[in-house]
Every structure is written in structure tokens, then in C-alpha cells.
Amino acid sequence: MDILKKIIVRPVVEGDEYLYDESRMPGGKADAVFLPENIEELSVLVSYLYSEKTPFTVYGKGTGITGASVPFGGVVISLEKMNKKKSLHRCEKSGRDFLSVEPGVTLAEIRDSLKDLFYPVDPTEMSASIGGTVATNASGACSFKYDSTREWVKSLKIVLPDGTVAHIERGEYFADSNGDIHFLGKKIKVPEYQMPKCKNAAGLYSCKGMDIIDLFIGSEGILGIIAEIEVWLENKMPTASFIAFFDDEERAFEFVQVLRPCKIKPEFIEYVDSSGLEMLEKKSLDDPASLNIPKLPDNSRAGIFFDMAYVSEGILEVLEITDEMLGNARGLAGSFCAWENIEKERIKFFRHALPETVNGFISEIKRNYPDIHKLGTDIAVPHEMFGEMNEFSKNTLMKSGLKFVSFGHIGDSHIHFNIIPQNYDELDAGKRIYGILVSKAVELGGTVSAEHGIGKLKHKYLETMYGKKGIDEIRRVKKCFDPEFLLNRGNMFDPGKK
Ligand SMILES: Cc1cc2nc3c(=O)[nH]c(=O)nc-3n(C[C@H](O)[C@H](O)[C@H](O)COP(=O)(O)OP(=O)(O)OC[C@H]3O[C@@H](n4cnc5c(N)ncnc54)[C@H](O)[C@@H]3O)c2cc1C
Question: Residue 314: how many CB atoms within 10 A of its CB?
Fold first, then answer.
């Protein structure tokens, strides 16, 4: 009880930051926010809330875009004050370096604290907390080379919904041949659905003989609160940045086929379509103070961004290899390349300018239609299905007459189609098309969400992927840890039915 009294708590008022994430999902409400400062406080608090049957929602930094940290009743537990511990270690057995951190530490803080090492998960939004990124199995452009968060988690300390603290080291608890994991006296039956054979952040992880740590990673906080994390690190290497332009989308895609298996594996491979290039050029002409990009080669209809790492004197080899690949793929003369930091930053800025430019368009439309929002797909499919998915998406959208732009992680066959509705009728039409694209992706063995997760906004699409049976299997795992359904209610599935 003494510990409970020490925990910082304050009421949540209308418009409070804890009622929103970056999706700006409306309707959030909570009575209070608790701000525990360490794992002991967190454990005591959670066990108290459970005994009182009070629902609680975990808040990292609120950068999610699926409403996953938006509370609908009960209280919020914000982990922002659990951000002090950060220490570097070396694993004697493997010789690899790893970082031990509290969940409230941000990715930017991790990046800035490391000198010759880096944490390779880069979900663009560096203000995200490491706890939030583990809970959502975040990934991004660099997952092409380094995979998603899951690959980098060495161990977790988790406060379970009843307040018990569990320490899970990768490699300790596995599912047996019946698909059961025996853990802390519980028998957990892992979901039986087949995960898509592509990058995926939808639903609980499941595969034969799986490690229990993977059940928690990407669970959107429905099974427990991640209170301490150990993640592996990599050695930093110098990189060169490139943008290759093509006069035809197909040529750009052919280039990606050559780039993927290249002997120097690119750090990432990103794509932008012709509408995206036009938007960026227009913005650069209209408002050079906010975006100043060099003139693009004539007839640029598609762009591929990629970075290549090299050992200290190896820049010439990288340039030779890329030059040859580009020549063979008939890339346009005038493609960009940089290895000095200032120029590399310019290319990075160019790459990141597109989502912001799209958001700028949406803000303009919002002046007349305040409830308008962008509809961005997060679909990925297995590589061999990418061509079909892309054609289908483009044709469906072109037939609809809706304005759209596509860009993103082509290395992972994960392109975001951003629909930009000009009025409410178009918003409705866009939502219908979104559902059609999801169904097509599932038919092709893909996922509705490769990186952003399901949260509270995409329940029906998770059901499209795994069916009612799959949702019941997720519900069953949840019930094992949280029989009262108090923690992170409403993520992944409707909490109405226990
Ligand atoms: C501009 C922009 C670009 C983005 N790009 C990408 C991208 O490329 N790839 C990508 O993957 N994501 C991307 N995101 C989404 C976002 O950054 C991630 O979802 C992030 O991982 C969430 O971290 P957070 O700390 O903000 O968590 P929150 O948004 O606060 O929470 C997200 C979920 O995690 C749970 N949670 C948080 N902390 C914990 C914890 N310690 N234990 C248990 N559960 C917890 C919450 O309850 C919630 O369910 C982007 C977001 C923005 C705004």
C-alpha cells in the first residue's frame, strides 16, 4: 500500500493527450493516469487495479496510428517515467553487444546514446518508446535487411495483468507438439492459424514450436506490460545513399528484383510512384523554403531509394556495383547518389517529405471537410504476389476516380497506397475500396497490416485474415493471462464478448 501511495496519479481531462494517439481516434475516455517510475511500482499498481476490476490501458508515447493506446474507460498507465535505466552489455557466449532499457526510453534517445553501435529497428517515428515498438513489433524501411523488432529482442521483463513479474529470455519456453506452452503454471494454446509469408504485424504471432517471447512481441499489450527490455545491437558502418529514377514503373520493379539479391544487401529499398514524384516537384516549386529538391531527370515516372553499407575503403565497389545494375535496368541518367553526411541527409529528407506532403494536402481539404482523413493501406504480400497486388490496387483505384499516391517499402513487397478523399462521398468510397484491397491481399496470402498493427480500428480486417475461429483463438490466449479482460481492452478484437 505504501508503494501504491507513492505512484504519481492525476485526473484525465477532456482533450488530454492520453486520450489520443496519432490516429486521432475520437471517443477516448479515462478517469485518471498513473505514472509509475519503476517495475516495482508498476507491479503493485497493476495487481491493485486487477483486484479492483478496473480496466487499464497502457500508453507508450502515443505515436501509434491504430488507436491501440486510446483508452475507452478505466485508467491509463503511462510508462513515460520508466525511462531512466539504459545500460550497455556484451554477451560472453556470442560476443554480441546488447542494450538493457526501460520501456519509456525513446528510439531517438537510444540512437543518440550509441557511438559505434546502433539499434537497427527504424519505424520512422523516433519519438516512439522502445516498449511501444516491442508491443507493436514495429518495423520500417530497414526491415528489408534487419527484419522487424522481433529479431532484435533478447529478453523481456513483463508485468502480467495480475501484477506477477515474469522474466522471459529467448530460447526458454517453446510450444510443444500439441501447440501448448507451459508457463508459470498455465497451459497456453497458441493460435492455430497460418501466418502470412510476408512481413506481418496483424494478430498474435503463431507458428509451430514457437517461443513464448514471440507471443508477447507484437501483442499490442493485450497479454502483459513490457517493463524491461534487452535488445541486440549492431556495429555501425558507413553507407552511401541512392535514388534511381525510371521512365516506367515496370522497369523500377525489375530493378528491385536485381537489387534484392545483390551481394551487398541494401539497408532498405523504398519506392515512390509518378504521382508522388509530381507532388514533391510541385511542392518544391511552390514552397522551396520547406522542400528544396534538385531537378528530377526528365520523364521520371518512378523512383527507388536505397542505401548500401560498405567497409571503410569499399565505396568504389559499391558505386561500381550500383552503376552496373542501374545501367542494366535502364535507370535514367541523373539518378542521385551521396556518401557525405550533408548530401545523405538531403536524400533522406526527400524520402521522408512525401508522407508529410500528403498530410499537407489532407490538411487543406480538412478546411472544408473537417472529418476527412487519409486512408493509407498497410498491406504486404509474398514477393511473388506483389505484381498482381499492385496491378489490382492501381486499377481499382483508377477506376474509382479517387486521388491516390503509392510509396513505401518495396523491398518487403509492402507499398502504402494513400487515398486522398476530396469530400465525404469520396471518403466513403475510399473505405469501401480499402476493404476490397484487404480482401485481395488476403486472397494472395498477404496481410492487412505489415507494420502498424490492428489496434481498435482494424478489427474487421483481422477477421478477414484469420476468420472468427482465429479471433477466438486470440481471445483464448488473452483469457489465459487476463481472465477479466481488463488490460488494453479493445485491441485486436471487440471486448464485448469474453
Ligand atoms: C509519422 C509516423 C510514421 C510511422 N511509421 C511507422 C513505421 O514505418 N513502422 C511502424 O512499425 N510504425 C510506424 N509508426 C507507428 C508507431 O510509431 C509505432 O506503432 C510505435 O511502435 C508505437 O510506439 P509508442 O511508444 O508511441 O506506443 P503507443 O502508441 O503509445 O502504443 C502502441 C501500443 O503499444 C502498447 N504499449 C505501449 N507500451 C507498452 C508496453 N511497455 N508494454 C505493453 N504494451 C505497450 C499500447 O498499449 C498500444 O497498444 C509511425 C507513426 C507515425 C506517427
Answer: 16
Ligand 1 atom nearest residue 139's Cα: 11
CB atoms within 10 A of CB 109: 17
Q: Give distance in angstroms: CA of 479 to centre of ligand 1.
A: 24
Q: What number is the ipTM of this complex?
A: 0.99
Tell me whether residue 385 is in a domain: yes
Ligand 1 center from residue 95 Cα (angstroms):
30
Q: How many domains does the chain have?
A: 3
CA of 330 to the centre of ligand 1 (A): 39
Give residues with Cβ within 8 angstroms of 302, minimum separation 6. 245, 246, 248, 249, 251, 252, 271, 272, 273, 274, 277
User: Considering the domain boundaries, does residue 325 fall inside one?
Assistant: yes
Give me the torsion for CA of 171, 176, 181, 185, rounded to 10°.
Answer: -110
- Rounded to 10°, the helix 459-481/424-443 angle is 60
Closest ligand 1 atom number to CA of residue 138: 11
**pLDDT tens by residue, 428-463:** 999 999 999 999 999 999 999 999 999 999 999 999
- Regarding the beta carbon of 225 and ligand 1, being less than 6 Å apart is answered yes
Cell digits for 417?
497506397
From residue 316, give the alpha-carbon distance in Å to each of 112, 309, 312, 322, 344.
Answer: 29, 12, 10, 10, 17
- Residue 173 contacts residue 182 (beta carbons within 8 Å): yes
| DSSP result, 429-441 | HHHHHHHHHHHHH
Tell the residue nearest (CA) to atom 18 of ligand 1: 64
* Weakest mean pLDDT among 86-100, 133-147, 196-210, 339-353: 339-353
Domain extent at residue 43: 2-78
- Centre of ligand 1 from the C-alpha of residue 232, in Å: 19
Q: Which long-range contacts (CB under 8 A, 24 or more apart) does 358-362 make?
A: 358/279, 358/405, 358/418, 358/420, 360/283, 361/279, 361/420, 362/420
Q: Of all helices (H) and strands (E), which one includes residue 245?
A: strand 239-246
CB atoms within 10 A of CB 47: 17
Give the sheet arrangement for strand 225-232, strand by strand.
Answer: 86-90, 97-101, 225-232, 153-159, 165-169
Residues 376 and 279 in one domain: yes
